[in-house]
Design a protein that fits this description.
This protein has 7 helices and 11 strands. With 219 residues, the protein is of the alpha/beta class. A hairpin with a 4-residue loop joins strand 5 and strand 6. The two termini are 20 Å apart.
Length: 219
């Protein structure tokens, strides 16, 4: 993917450009550096002042060409910092929520069954199949993280965005989830952008890494 983003914030301008094809790009920086703004622009939740964004072979945003593809059409999976699980839905309903918007799910029974089988496979892979009927308030922080990651990838996104995915976990749970994320990298080969303030996570997961400060790449 490639992104060139200029977005005005309260105290500085995010002005960043980078491209990569495979693996995990880690954007490291302290809180307030503009990291989440970059993810929000890539996903389509926020529109930059100017620039361009390409996911795979598709241009999803280009200020000069007046292109701005909707969030839903960008085929991006987004794991939010607080996981953003729906409290009124059980784990299984949360996981399959995104895939229900896919055309093949709605219109083709065979494709729908194949997608649901894939969801079962993802849940088995991340060890949450036994939690299907539980609600978010009945599971641990590490389990919520696995549910959110499963939901982000069941719709087979072209790109996965992860906003401080480990920050809410205690150290013991982090060590387990770190290994699961390394499994995810090996198993699914989905290009990803992961943001963190933690140098250890940057070194552990980043196939390429950049350091941000006040909206700029400084390393």
């Amino acid at each position: 993917m490639f992104f060139k983003i200029q977005k005005k914030l309260d105290h500085f301008m995010v002005d960043i450009e980078y491209g990569f094809e495979q693996g995990v790009l880690v954007i490291q920086g302290e809180s307030g550096a503009g990291k989440t703004t970059v993810l929000n622009c890539i996903s389509g939740l926020v529109m930059p002042e100017s620039g361009s964004i390409k996911i795979g072979e598709r241009i999803v945003y280009d200020s000069d060409k007046k292109i701005n593809i909707t969030t839903r059409e960008r085929t991006v999976g987004y794991l939010f910092q607080n996981y953003a699980l729906f409290p009124n839905m059980n784990v299984y309903q949360n996981v399959i929520y995104g895939m229900k918007n896919k055309k093949e799910y709605k219109e083709n029974r065979t494709e729908r069954l194949a997608l649901l089988e894939y969801a079962d496979y993802i849940m088995e892979t991340f060890g949450i199949a036994h939690l299907k009927k539980k609600h978010p308030n009945q599971i641990s922080g590490g389990e919520k993280q696995r549910v959110a990651l499963s939901r982000a990838i069941v719709s087979k996104p072209e790109l996965l965005l992860l906003d401080e995915p480990f920050s809410a976990l205690d150290q013991k749970t982090k060590e387990v989830v770190y290994q699961e994320f390394l499994l995810f990298k090996k198993e699914f080969s989905i290009p990803a952008v992961l943001i963190t303030h933690n140098p250890e996570e940057s070194r552990m997961f980043g196939d390429c890494r950049i350091l941000m400060k006040e909206g700029k790449i400084i390393g």
